[in-house]
Design goal:
Two copies of one chain form a homodimer.
Chain A (H helix, E strand, L loop, with lengths): L1 E8 L3 H12 L1 H8 L1 E9 L16 E2 L2 H6 L5 E4 L6 H11 L3 E4 L2 H17 L4 E2 L10 H8 L5 E7 L2 H13 L3 H10 L8 H4 L2 H15 L9 E2 L7 H9 L2 E11 L4 E11 L11 E8 L3 E8 L3 H17 L1 H6 L21 E11 L4 H11 L4 E6 L7 E8 L2 E2 H11 L5 E10 L7
Parallel strand pairs in A: 1-2, 1-4, 2-3, 4-5, 5-6, 8-10, 10-17
Antiparallel strand pairs in A: 7-9, 7-11, 9-10, 11-12, 13-15, 13-16, 13-17, 14-15
Chain lengths: ~425, ~425
Amino acid sequence: MQEVNVAIVGFGTVGTGVARILLTKKKELAERCGLMLNLTHVVDIDIKRKRGLALPRGILTTDIEAVYRDESVPVVVETVGGTTTADRIFKKLLRSGKNVVTANKALLATKGEPLFRLAAKKNLSIGFEASVCGGIPIIGALKEGFIANDILSFMGIVNGTCNYVLTKMMDENIPYKAALKEAQQMGYAEKQPALDVNGTDSAHKLAILARLAFGRYFDFSAVHTEGIDGIDFQDLVYARELGYAVKLLAIGKNHPSALELRVQPTLIPLSHPLASVDGVFNAISLEADYAGHCMLYGKGAGERPTASAIVADLVDVVSGRTLISLKRMKAFTGEARKARMRGIDDIESCYYLRFSVLDKPGVLGRISTVLGRHGISILSVIQKELRRKGPVPVVIMTHLATERNVRAALKTIDKFRVAKASTVCLRVEMRGESL
Amino acid sequence: MQEVNVAIVGFGTVGTGVARILLTKKKELAERCGLMLNLTHVVDIDIKRKRGLALPRGILTTDIEAVYRDESVPVVVETVGGTTTADRIFKKLLRSGKNVVTANKALLATKGEPLFRLAAKKNLSIGFEASVCGGIPIIGALKEGFIANDILSFMGIVNGTCNYVLTKMMDENIPYKAALKEAQQMGYAEKQPALDVNGTDSAHKLAILARLAFGRYFDFSAVHTEGIDGIDFQDLVYARELGYAVKLLAIGKNHPSALELRVQPTLIPLSHPLASVDGVFNAISLEADYAGHCMLYGKGAGERPTASAIVADLVDVVSGRTLISLKRMKAFTGEARKARMRGIDDIESCYYLRFSVLDKPGVLGRISTVLGRHGISILSVIQKELRRKGPVPVVIMTHLATERNVRAALKTIDKFRVAKASTVCLRVEMRGESL
């Protein structure tokens, strides 16, 4: 049986999970795939901290140079994280002739191009199934399963922290801050959760998915990104009343003339399969010309799901399967056509608008007049008899409109003397069963 | 660029879809995967019928021998269907040195072993992603994406006809026969729908999934199979009232001592992601030790989703990726350990029981006494004041019990003089969010 030495660089949560599989499932894996994966190096700056996993003597080291030098190691798992040290290590690994398997979505999304170029030049593989929703084999599906399809569009819940917070807010009737705190206590959100809650992590994953799905190259900065940190609990309640769930969606649409890529809190009908994806679960829903509507659902993060994806990549990289697929992934090396991007002002969507206005006669009429003047037609209205002083909420759902027109209309309406706060504006994906 | 000749044997719905992709997407596919797939032969007995697709001159033929003989064709798509002619053709293709891509679940489930053996002997590939839920890349996920995992169990809605019929019954308050008729009118059910509605088609897919998921060999006859043809509309209504949906599930469980494989109409909680898989959609929900709970959802059948899977297989077979994976799929060649199977009497499940009894004092007491004597404890009861003569329904949900005990109890109860019909007995999978 073929024996293959494997090194892990970065002994954090994910690195520990990978080591755990390689050590405890060695024989099973060998039986399943005809490869004996030998864990030979685990590198970390900190080799004192307990990880709850006993490594064989002599494996754990701070000496990364030993990995670069060791010619008996053809493949390295990079779980360092971040985009500076990891980038340096990644390049040095490739230059040393190592295939690399990674979960580092930030690195691939923002600095992936030179890495894939370098790998191609050296005939090496990069495995990155773990970079997007570890427990969901979406990268493999896009690289192989859907190869015959034009992917028309996709929408994903790709950040478990945000989805947990939104689910908690809704289930327990609590505001954003309280839900985030609970997520932190449960270990589902980090102490510094900015990259999750401001949408950046979702945007990284969106960029990777979009390159694979649409086969075109673009700069990461072209992804329009909003988070859940501005979400108000009452909008979740109104949305539910209207028959919608609010989810942080990573949306990719392949228009004939341009790509539309954006991360935004979005209303989707409760009948859409994504609407019932709750808690830390992730899911990606896509529309393909031949396969039709498809959804993949599972755990996106955590030690075990991420390690599962990394070990699958190890097997594919070592057996040569990854290299065969990589040759067609020009979208990462800039050889593909550069995509024209649709700017956020040009997107078309339905809208959820919540106005905060004084309850004076004629207000609703004035609002709808302005909307109408900008070509925005109203689908439904919620205005409740609140019998209170101060501003009252007026919720309007619109038919399809362009972002530019909606923003222009809101600019006018928010200047009304009766308008007491900026209008809340969320996008709505109307279609239920499919995209 | 590598050019590869492809033949299609069987010019029915699926064959037409494959030809359509190969003809209309030739350039796109070549760009995506570096392979130019040339359709050189389309073989069928009937070359007169219109398929709504214009083939290039000289491709359509009744002469299958030309395919066996043509050494320039390394891969053939078999879409003949059935298990006799298809089996003969399949073997002859392999003996002629052709790799084969198929959607034929019946053939692989019941007579797959000699085919995989023969392919292995001749170093040829068999691609069968299209054999289970065409639009869902589940075969690839089990062969590759979840390779690091022990699959603990899975449950699938794998027959679109049955799911459409059950959904229609529920949505439109109509009995089984009316829903089936509607499915036939819509083209979702065949004129001879027996293999679909009696569960056989689901059992074929279950057998293929179970071999891949559990890596063990077993005879197809060991799969316990029930269909939806005995389903009574009122049981769907009671189930809904209790918070459950009724789905025809293909269930595979990997117990330490034995495999449990069965196809049965089953109650699942409305909170389970499978419960909202409606109409012709399919889904497979699985529980893996590292990836956790995962679900893949999409279209299971039809020209376009099935063709999508076949073309993905063509690319993988030709590029050599399939052969790499096939080497580890011993479960199909009988080299794997033969599985011990759990007989249906030994399964453990929760139960939905609907008794038809005369509304006399003490009846419920007598029923629960018999259940208790067989170690079956009651979770909930629905007994409505019906104020009518003749038998009334009493619905009981039980805690976990063995099938043997339930059957013994029902044998006694059904002999009560107040019992006016055989008790309806359906299995219940209790867990919501995950298996």
